[in-house]
Amino acid sequence: MRKPLSTPMLRYVMLLAVTLSSACMATPDRVVRVGVYENEPKIMPAADGRPSGLLGDLLQAIAEREGWQLEPVQCEWQRCLSLLSQGDIDLMPDVASSPARQELYDFHQVPALHSWSQLFSRPGSNIHSPLDLDRKRVAILADGVQHEYLQQLMDGFDISPRIMPVSTLQETLQELQQGYVDLAVSNHLYGNYHAAEYGIIPTSIVFQPSRLYYAAPLGKGYELQSRIDYWLQRWRDDANSPYYNLMKRWGGETPAALVPPALVWGLSVSALLLLLALAFVWLLQRQVQARTRALEANEAHLNDILSNIQAFIYHKGRDYRYEYVNAALCRFLGRTEEQLTGASDADFFDPDTLQDIRQADRQVIEQGKRVVVEEVITPVDSTEPRVLMTVKMPLCDAKGRVRGLCGVSTDITEQRKHQQQLHQLSHFDPLTGLPNRRQLQERLKVALMAAEPNGQEGAILFIDLDNFRDLNDDQGHEVGDQLLQAVAARLNQLPLEHFMQARFGGDEFILLLEGLSPFRDRALMQVEQHVNTTLLALSEPFELSDGNTHTGTASIGVAMFSDAPGDIRGLIKKAELAMYAAKSAGRSGFSFFDPSMQAQVRLRAELEAGLRRGLEQDEFRLWYQPQFNLEGKLIGMEALVRWQHPEQGMVSPADFIPVAETSGLILPLGRWILRTACEQLVAWQQHPVLANVRIAVNISARQMQDEGFVTEVCSILDQTGADACALELELTESMLVQSIEQTIDKMQVLRQRGVHFALDDFGTGYSSMSYLKRLPLDKLKIDQSFVRDLMTDPNDAAIIRTIVALGQSLDLSVVAEGVETNEQRQALVTSGCQGFQGYLYSRPGSAQELEHSIHGQR
Hints:
alpha/beta; eight-stranded mixed barrel; signal; 23% strand; transmembrane; c-di-GMP
């Protein structure tokens, strides 16, 4: 026999399912227009459009006492601010005060709410400190006060996350959920309120505690805001006021059950009457019996209702065991009420599900919180997970102590499946599974917004399969579809970073490249590499059904973000026009939209071909620039490569070194420089002045990363007979952040051989004491950019003093580059620098020129 449900418990449950509302008609003295937008739980529109949430309900309470009629104006955040500035709304809740906003709006004195900003991430992202934000994509509300504060945080920690402004807080969490960004900035109330819904978690990074107000148009807010201040100040001094009741309600706290004063009075009167009316006991007993029968009938009626409700309703005690379950939960778990009563979740769910359920239960029972959570559960006798939207709230005894919890769960599995199917259909191509045109445009919008303020470049590659129509006509659309699917799979396997591939339509695909260099020349080189990789991948044979293969080509048009800033359609159109230009040029190739870009790419190709010819025909020369100490004594030479082009004359290293690095020619060129410098060391061994001079050779990141670099250096030293102690290798800071451990290992091996090391251009890269202390360095070189403005920029002077002090603390010699005037030299001496290199002492020259110059000085 089913255990009857107690009447108080039934009433509590029914309050979860039935809400009665009444409207009281009144004639307000004033209509107050209120901006309402989605920012749960602080402010959002109720079902009838009225302001709701913590701040909305608080304003409703004030309006009732002031006789105001609130007229809601629903708008997004930025639109609300515009309406407020124009005076089209009278009040806007949830506005943080800042000096800039105080010039635009009126604010009252007493803050309505205290809040702070917090970063949210997807589970497993390992974001623990501000330093972890470097190069991460961060979604943030446009025109919010968090934007400026986060920028200051970035500058303070010298990090460069990619800021992506969005229009609404909902959009920030959606971008994070869908993986378009790595982090989202939200106020802690909204983020925590929706964390379960979006499958995200709060990080430990919080910032910018703020006070929130009801803002009014500038110069028009005194009348309303003075009354708001009055009620806020009055209610904050009263623990039982509407202010604290709303705080507990929306903040997730359940206030302790209070005994109404009327009930106390009634009980006292009843007791007195009972003492005075003992003669009427028999009448009261009859009344009690009648009421008992009515309650029993009501209880049976309520049990019938609960048995037919589709939601799962249950009670648990403090021991997390079921005390009551309705028929729907029994059917779901395949158990009877007797089997469930007294049982725990461990009897019915797998360990992962049990852990999630128990975590939510603890928040209710141990902390007294009301919890709304989306649960994914898998019963032990089932393999299909189910998605439940669950509300859990504490059950309290007469003294306000939590004695258990009441839960109401609704199975939304099919709803979630439909949502996923709709999202898949609306954002992905059904044939290839790639993002479709709609998702591409959404992603491109975000990419353009993120690239513009940071100065970063990007590009889209418009890909069209050559002669695809002929394949369709000859072999049918089924074979054509197979080729499109194979092309999509090939694009998915491209070894590219920060890119997105999409099917634009027909046999057209688009690759979106982000995070390119802000420098146009570098960005063009990067794009060319990506294009060549893509063309090569698409030229490989495709395996189709029935063992058939297809070998084809593609034409690619390229448009850079800077070709059409902020214009999505214009950018795609320009890439398409460039694609047609590539087809016109003979197919199986690519073309940039901007002719000047095409010319730069052509120039780079010519320069690369010239480099190859120059290495073969011995067109390179090695010049040397001396280094001197404080007394003017020669202490070293830096080897500088020069290209004597047969037609263009002397070509600057700034022009050909970047091409050599990206093309891989830096390896043979670097090998030639190192061998030539070692041969010069041997030639100077008998020179009376230069015999003990150390030659410094610049090493590129590509050389240092090459697996055979150490062997190559040792081999050159052995073959030339050069003294390893007279060879100094100069590294740059930027190369050290790549494979730092392997770099240190290679340096230590060469150091044991006797080779010295210097850190070139110090102060311009990723300076860090952690690696400086670990590197086997002998010298720091102050970059000439700091020396150039030394006499006019106090910051450069301070940086130089810091570098010199750092070198002294690490027992490293310090040499300043680019010293051109006596004033610069004197300022460097004053800062403690004792090594100098620059035109003040000597220009770079050939070995013969330097020998002649030194001979003349003797």
